[in-house]
Design goal:
The complex is a heterodimer of chains A (about 425) and B (about 90). Chain A is α/β, with parallel strands linked by helices and about 425 residues long. Chain A has two domains: about 160 residues, Rossmann fold, CATH 3.40.50.1100; about 200 residues, Rossmann fold, CATH 3.40.50.1100. Chain A is about 35% helix and about 15% strand. Chain A has a six-stranded mixed sheet, sandwiched between helices. In chain A, helix 9 crosses helix 10, helix 10 packs across helix 12 and helix 11 packs across helix 12. Chain B is an alpha+beta fold. Chain B has one domain: Ubiquitin-like (UB roll), CATH 3.10.20. Chain B is about 15% helix and about 25% strand. Chain B is built from two helices and five strands; from the N terminus they run E-E-H-H-E-E-E. In chain B, strands 2-1-5-3-4 form a five-stranded mixed sheet, with helices on one face. Chain B starts with a strand and ends in a 6-residue tail after the last strand. Classes of the chains: A alpha/beta (about 425), B alpha+beta (about 90). Chains A and B meet through helix 7 and helix 8 of A and strand 3 and strand 5 of B. The structure holds pyridoxal-5'-phosphate and zinc ion. The site of pyridoxal-5'-phosphate has 17 residues of chain A, from helix 5 and helix 10. Chain A: Keywords: Lyase, Pyridoxal phosphate. Chain A: Pfam families: PALP. Chain A: This is Threonine synthase. Chain A: Belongs to the threonine synthase family. Chain A: It is an enzyme of class 4 (lyase).
Chain lengths: ~425, ~90
């Protein structure tokens, strides 16, 4: 594959990222990677699948008793780094060049709640992150791991948002980036992925083809010293999504909401929000009370929703066809765990049509002044559908996630434009019937 | 039927670090059995106790996910390429 001129890390930058994986301090309170399937433990390293059973690895911690309090967190920076003690990152992480994502607003959505007949609804608006999606959270953690492992290139397979987040984070950290996307993504996402100066490679295929290609690349000498944030760094990457759970609870006054609606692509975000909530309970930072987690997909790519409704515990892959391209993973890695979590908590997984996605983008914009990308339309659409079916309780305190910015998927609402085009005269304005 | 099989990093301890090996077999099941004959122990990593593909492994025959085809019964024509890939990547 021919790559255009790269932005190589300067020699001085690479010496500052010398491998330091042997130092436990590099990963804070994290102590190991453990297999979600069989429990086998592995030393912290750039690995992602269990050698015994192929199961996904996740970060395991040994928290110092009593040291993590609401006060110690509140004293931290207004970014995800206020939760550094709960993440696999070194002390002083906030001072290293990074995008400082997180601490996005939790909007009390009174207008939308009224329209939907709900008592208490909040929108966690992650479009306010540096590259306008929640992906800055996951990439920030993966970047730290890449630095610790001495990797020279940051990479990923992406449906767009992750590519932008990786490009920006690598630029800021002085690393080279080379990211891979399906070649038919939205123009806005392609621009955002390329503008930071790394390499952007369009692949003729679906996201699942791109992902498979990246999985093979890390096993090849070409991919040596490359950190694929969602492949060989995936255990660290995933931890970034826990910060959504922490922030939501802290912003609610250290309370777990009763219902949370979360978009699903690979399902990583949903599973890690659940992990984050469990950690807060374990640490005594929030009261242990039941919560229900709901997953949202677009009907044109709804393998998890289909499995949920059919009562299956495996997810049969599909070939995506939806305008919600950021969620278009036909073969979601965390699908089985999403099913477990939604069933265990008494939630559900639902899907909505592309027309409902567009409608829901407009509904959220019209009621709350929040312009969501298609993923947000999917999530709000599913909220609405689950309320109508009675699966969601309108009386329960609910948080719905908006994970990305509508400016990235303008095509979805194409045709939304001026109420009238007139001559600059009062008469013309009156004649247009808007006065 | 000679088939070339791409081995993921986590299974290369069985294949003495070879990233690609050749075996004989007309179906995916036969290919996996042939792999086991050459590299004992590898089958139990790919298949569970019931002899089914583990839930976190993806297998492709010539770029096609075998779950879209006939699973372990998927035909592996002469010269086919089989890729075994951990399913846990991704997150977009
Ligand atoms: C805006 C947005 N929301 C949600 C997701 C879902 O992420 P996950 O793979 O963690 O389920 C994505 C993935 O790209 C995304 O771009
Ligand atoms: Zn395992």
């Amino acid at each position: 594959m021919a790559l255009s001129a790269a932005t190589p890390a300067s020699p001085t930058t690479s010496t500052t990222t010398a491998p330091d994986a042997t130092s436990p301090a590099s990963f804070g309170n994290a102590v190991a990677l453990s297999c979600r399937e069989c429990g086998e433990r592995f030393p912290l390293g750039p690995i992602f699948a269990c050698t015994s059973c192929f199961g996904p690895l996740e970060v395991a911690y040994d928290y110092p008793a009593g040291a993590i309090t609401r006060e110690s967190i509140a004293a931290g920076p207004n970014s995800i780094w206020r939760y550094a003690a709960l993440l696999p990152v070194p002390a002083g992480v906030a001072e290293r060049p990074n995008l400082n994502p997180g601490f996005t607003r939790l909007v009390h959505a009174r207008n939308l709640a009224r329209e939907l007949g709900m008592r208490a609804l909040h929108v966690k608006d992650d479009s306010g992150n540096p590259t306008h999606s929640f992906k800055d959270r996951v990439v920030a953690i993966a970047l730290e791991a890449a630095r610790t492992f001495g990797m020279n290139t940051l990479s990923c397979s992406s449906t767009g948002n992750l590519a932008g987040a990786v490009g920006a984070a690598a630029a800021r950290a002085g690393l080279r980036s080379c990211v891979f996307i399906p070649s038919d993504l939205e123009a806005g996402k392609q621009v955002m992925a390329a503008v930071y100066g790394g390499d952007l490679v369009g692949i003729d295929g679906t996201y699942d083809d791109v992902n498979r290609f990246c999985s093979e690349l890390i096993g090849d000498p070409i991919g040596q010293d490359w950190g694929f944030v969602n492949v060989n760094l995936r255990p660290y990457y995933g931890e970034g999504s826990k910060t959504l759970a922490y922030e939501i609870c802290e912003q609610l006054g250290w309370r777990i909401p009763e219902q949370i609606v979360i978009p699903i692509a690979s399902g990583s975000q949903l599973t890690k929000i659940d992990k984050g909530l469990a950690e807060l309970v374990k640490l005594g930072l929030v009261e242990d009370r039941p919560y229900r987690i709901f997953g949202a997909q677009a009907t044109g790519c709804s393998p998890v929703s289909a499995a949920f409704k059919a009562g299956h515990d495996v997810v049969r892959p599909v070939r995506p066809d939806t305008i919600a391209k950021s969620l278009a993973i036909g073969n979601p890695a965390d699908g089985p765990y999403v099913l477990d979590i939604c069933r265990r908590t008494g939630g559900a997984v639902e899907d909505v049509s592309d027309a409902e996605v567009v409608d829901s983008i407009k509904l959220l914009a019209r009621t709350e002044g929040i312009f969501a990308e298609t993923a947000g339309g999917v999530t709000v659409g599913v909220l609405r559908k689950l309320l109508a079916s009675g699966a969601l309780d309108p009386e329960a305190e609910t948080v719905v996630l908006n994970t990305g910015d509508g400016l990235k998927t303008l095509d979805a609402v194409a045709g939304t434009g001026p109420s009238a085009v007139i001559k600059p005269t009062l008469d013309a304005f009156r004649a247009a019937g808007l006065a | 039927m000679s088939v070339s099989v791409r081995i993921p990093t986590i299974l290369r301890t069985y294949t003495k670090d070879q990233a690609e090996v050749s075996v004989e077999g007309g179906t995916l099941q036969e290919v996996i059995d042939a792999l086991e004959a050459d590299y004992p122990g590898i089958r139990a990593r790919i298949l569970d106790d019931a002899g089914k593909l583990r839930r976190f492994v993806n297998v492709y025959v010539n770029d096609d996910d075998v779950r879209f085809a006939d699973g372990l019964a998927t035909a592996t024509p002469d010269g086919a390429g089989v890729s075994i890939i951990p399913a846990v990547a991704g997150g977009c």
